Amino acid sequence: MSTALHTLSEQTEERLTQPQSSWIAGRFIGGSDVHAIVNPSTAEAIAEYCAAQQADVEAAVSAARESFDQERWTGLSPSDRGRALWRLADLMEEQAELLAEMEMLNAGKSLAAARNGEIPFAADCFRYFAGWCSKLDGASKKLAGMPSGEFMAYTHREPVGVAALIVPWNGPLVQACWKLAPALAAGCSCVLKPAEETPLTVLLLAELAKRAGIPDGVLNVVLGGADIGAQLVEHPQVDKVSFTGSTTVGKRIVSAAQGNLKKVSLELGGKSPMIVFPDADVDAAAAGVIDGIFSNAGQVCVASSRLYVHRDIYSTLLEKLKALAIAIEPGDARDPNAGMGPLISQRHRESVMTHIERAQSQGASLLCGGKRLNREGYFIEPTIFTDLNNDMDLIKDEVFGPVLAVQVFDDEDDIVAMANDSDYGLAASIWTQDISRAHKTAAKIKAGLLWINCHGLPDMAVPFGGYKQSGWGRENGEEAIAQYTETKSVIVRL
Predict the structure, then answer these.
(1) Are 476 and 461 spatial neighbours (Cβ–Cβ below 8 Å)?
(2) Domain check: are 259 and 365 in the same one?
(3) Catalytic residue among 101, 103, 118, 267
(4) What is the pLDDT of residues 229-284, one digit of tens each?
């Protein structure tokens, strides 16, 4: 593997020397509780951030509430709000190199994946939802029990108010934009909390939002850990919480939000099955599996972590998967030749290794990988297990790492039962050339998002969310707008 690492731009180098702090009412507020921001590729500190204090969270919520009550954002015409969101997307593209380099350093993503994939997609979130600013329509209603000549009724949608948006570390910028774009399009004011590991790109996003014309107080960013998130969730002036993260934390958020019965939407864990039927294009399926489980080192909520292969092609596909996995060379995200990046932290790497060791102790067969890399940073080999059953922890538990569990099946009815035997229901994919089989199987799988002959491809117009313990509500599309609005009904005596 090449040792020629990407050279950072002067703009990125300069920004990393600046202390990062919470953004409240249109400015950085500073602070004294300083923490390191670590590059997971090297385990070295690259910058520092100042954690928010309780008073800072109060200030952020107050700024959001004041901006909402004073209609600084909702008082603009829908067209003006849409233009501001479109300008924000343009500014993100102007700063794409800076955003990509910070995402590479902070989250361990390859520069190509960030520059060519995540940054354009994040910008397009705002373009897509910019169009919704002028489409928050109500409807006239035919009354069921009143004389139509004497009464009329109509509905319209209003922003829910102040929204707390809590985003994870595995997709810091994209996940922030997934939440922020529909919230702003709906007219909400927001307090956004990035993961404590990955604050860099979200802070730049806040600056760009101000330059785009989004008024002060409409977007605030608070930095810190679980205590900051808890304060936001419990705050009586927060009307809505949108959280992406683990199912365990999601359950705590539901309990904490009961104080004022605020609206909650949750995008939680997944254990996504990939089903490969005997007539599938084996080469395409193999490539889909590898990308689905080893992209971003498996730190993806829809990672294809459970693979079910029909016995007729099991050996052939397994041989291809092993060869492809062994050929992946993990490395520094700055290395353009690295086949897979790092895990986010030492703590998370140890968690993934615990899953690997437990799988071996429970009798699973290690096909390849399974070891830490003896180098700087938080790396694990691409790992594949076989000889599993649905009672093993590796089939039940979300690993959130580059670990694939492979099982064989013979009967189509059995595979549906196997795939649905999970506490999760976020996503799944089906690989077959029989379109009838594909649709019939998709109808039976208990998951919020199904792909056929592909895996892990999002689109802003398509709702994203899960069944069962994978969450509440949907992101993307019109369903995302609904998460941030209330429906008001009006009955008029004429």
Answers:
(1) yes
(2) no
(3) 267
(4) 999 999 999 999 999 999 999 999 999 998 899 999 999 999 999 999 999 999 99
